[in-house]
Amino acid sequence: MRHITWSTSVFIMLVLRKRTVVLLGFIFVVSSVTVLRLTGLHTGGYQTEQMFAQKTQSVSEIILPVILQTTYSAVAEDLRAPADARNPLIPHIIHQTFETVMIPSELESYIRTVVNMNANWTYYFWTDVSARNLVKERHPNLLDIWDKYKRNIMRADALRYVVLYEFGGAYLDLDVEAYRSFNRITYKYGCIIPPEPIEHSALLYNMTLLLNNAIMFCRAKHPIMKALMNGLEGSMNHKNILFATGPIFLTNMFNSYVNERILNKSVIINNDSSGTTVFHVSGEAYIVDIYIPNVAFFNDEIDYTLQNKGFQQTCKNVSDSSNLVRQACGHFLNREMKRQMNFLAFTGHKWIHLWLRSKADNQKTSKKNISEILAEKTITIF
């Protein structure tokens, strides 16, 4: 007891002797907090302004950690939309495509959900013939590349970048199911590119971020779509389709697009629990450029049919794995048996993989004309 009383007395004496120092310190702290808050208000509240302190920072040092922190976290609120919005930034057009108008019957229910949930949207359907005609008419410089592609899926990949650049709207693979209307998401963002689940990016490709080109929303003439079209020539000879025209190509081009603008300080990155936004400067203000939403909104369904065994094998023993792989395995093992559709989800990708089937198997598949599937909807077949 004596020891405690003595220590307390000494402490009180020191405080009294140095009350002036404490007071000054308190004033300094309050002033510093005030300055920081004012600075945050002045810069629009973007915490990532500090990222531009060093011009040599790369996209992997800046945007990928930000996305990893937000894209795979739980969300409790809906995708944000301006309350006073009047005109959509992304036009209400749905684009879908197949080799011909004869669609595998197994896809019919998914197509119907997309149209029924977005009854007031215009529907464009593209075939191989109309796709080539569009490229020939609007982007003849791509025609030689188009004709040299060895796989039709490569042309299908390239087409989605072309139609979104030319017309804007939503591009959806035929095995994408819609759970609710897309109207809400078209008023705030100029381009929305959802990522694949972390199980795919980390466990299949050892990538922090993997964007998926099966589900994309964008305004017409967006520079990211122009960049994707411009990048097709440089990757056309890659043996792996994912790198040539698919999701890895999309991700690499997105990284280059953002990295270039980070270096010249024409964009800033902002993140919250619902995703990561790339803002670009226009005049004196920053405006929305591209949005990478939380995976829960569009693409939270993993490819069980094709990849489940691989996931299981990879996650058997992760003690020597990277932090990224351990995190992905945590998601996979914790959610494998209880993964349910989030009530905030707009879409789900069913991973049918028609392009991996043999011609013989595809010929045996029951088919139905897209006009018959959407008989009650006015559609445009190009």
From TrEMBL:
Q: Does the keyword Transmembrane helix apply?
A: yes
Xref: SUPFAM superfamilies: Nucleotide-diphospho-sugar transferases (SSF53448)
Protein keywords:
Membrane, Transferase, Transmembrane, Transmembrane helix
Q: Does the keyword Flavoprotein apply?
A: no
Tell me which species this is from.
Mya arenaria
Any idea what this protein is called? SUR1-like protein
Q: Which domain of life is it from?
A: Eukaryota
Residues passing through the membrane, by range: 21-40
